[in-house]
Structure formats: C-alpha cells, structure tokens
Amino acid sequence: MEYVSRERVTPLTAILSVISLIVVFAAAGGRVPQSAVPAAPEWVLEFIPHLNVVISATAIVTIAVGWRAIRRGDVVAHRRAMLASFGLFGAFLVFYLYRLIATGGPEPFPGPETVYLTVYLPVLAIHIFLAVVCIPLVYYALLLAVSRPIPELRQTSHARIGRIAASLWLISFSLGIVVYVLGHVIY
User: Fold this and answer.
1) Would 29 be classed as within a structural domain?
2) Residue 143 and residue 13: Cα distance in Å, rounded?
3) Are 50 and 184 in contact (CB under 8 A)?
4) CATH of residue 105
5) What pLDDT, in 10s, does the model give residues 54-84?
6) How far apart are CA 144 and CA 12, in angstroms?
7) What is the number of alpha carbons within 13 Å of residue 34 lying toward its C-beta?
8) What is the DSSP string of 91-152?
9) Considering the domain boundaries, does residue 1 fall inside one?
10) What total of structural domains would you count in the chain?
11) Any idea of the CA torsion for 123, 128, 133, 138, to the nearest 10 degrees?
C-alpha cells in the first residue's frame, strides 16, 4: 500500500486538507449553485439525514474497533477498521454536501430559540470545529500509514496523531448524532 512518497506526506496532507475545507465551506456558505448537483426527489433529500446518522453510528463503531485492534496488536484489523472509518466519513460527507447544495443550504433549527441558543448551537459549533480539526489529522495519519511499511510506522508520529484524530473523530461523530436527534427527532 505504499502509494505515497514519504517526503510528500506533509504537503499532500496540507493540499488535501485545504481542498476539502474549501469544498465544505463553499457548500455550507451557499457558494456552490444548486445546478452543480443533479436534482433528486424530495424523499431522497429527506432520507439523507437519517442515512447519515446510521453512517455516523457505524463510523463510531469502526473507529472503536480499530482502536481496540491496535491495542491488541492486530495491525491488519486496525488498518481495515480505520480504512472503513475513513470510507464512512467520506460517504457521510458526500451525502451531507449533496443535500446541503441540493437544498440551497443548511435548514433552520425547528425547535425553540432558547434550545437553539443554549444547546443546539454550542453542540453544532463544537461538532463542526472538531470535524474541521480532524481533517488534516486523519489525512496525515492515513498518508503515513500508506507511505511506510508497518514496522517503520512505529518511528513516525502515526500512533500519536492517530490517537488524537480518533478521539476527536469519535467526539465529532457523537455530537453529530446529538445534532441529528435535536433537529430531526426531538423537534
């Protein structure tokens, strides 16, 4: 799996992070026109948040499985679980961004303003902040993993960065589920 040059991990992490964040913030800020994505029936757009909460919950499980596997020394299971987590994160992001662009932006919080200001908005802000912070950390850990043989990873910051990325990722996915429950179940 050594597809990435060792010397290019840091610059490639920076490039991928910047591109990812530009795409996300452009979509969230309404800078991407609805005509940029194919139209979908209303039921598809309404289904995406429900699908994304399942993806988030599954990602929490795969991250936890990957973390447990590496603590047991099972590098193969760890790699599979973390690649699955990355794939789930990618799927979540594609569906989320598609819906965001197709509907013309984020939907307003349907609950009372006091809940919006005291609970929903702080949870959403922390969720978004952690998701943004995770992007370069996840890319860096992933690129280190695919650019070196397994024995050499111990001589890199893969484990340290991976622990931080996984922790923040777990919190971000969990808070995303809280946002979903507040916006789609409770209110």
Assistant:
1) yes
2) 7
3) yes
4) 1.20.120
5) 999 999 999 999 999 999 999 999 999 999 9
6) 11
7) 9
8) HHHHHHHHHHHHHTSPPPP-S-HHHIIIIIHHHHHHHHHHHHHHHHHHHHHHHHHHHS-HHH
9) no
10) 1
11) 110
